[in-house]
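Quick question, first post here. What does this chain look like in 3D?
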Amino acid sequence: MSYRKLPNHTPLLIRYKSQSKPPSFQSNSPAKQSTNLIKAYLDNGLLKQAHQLFDEMPELDVVTWTAMISGYTACNHHNFAWTVFKNMMMECSDHPNAFTFSSTL
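> Answer (accepted):
Ran it through. Tokens below.
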């Protein structure tokens, strides 16, 4: 078995890095971290913990509401999903998006 010797070039990553600044990494906001935790709870069937965290969040955006709705739907708790959707329509200043509607239906 013979191996081909690769040309001695500077790796692409090093060339790119030296030509421009690397991207800055921003930490997730607390709301985004909480939403991710809610999704993880729901993915593992921990509905009570997800709902408790949801209730404790100071600000709820459309992504958080949709995570709760889709999580309840995925766990076959359609009545809870519908209740969360109705509460969203009354309490949330953001309008539901297409994914919110499809999760509700």
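The two ends are 60 Å apart (CA to CA).
The chain is about 65% helix and 0% strand.
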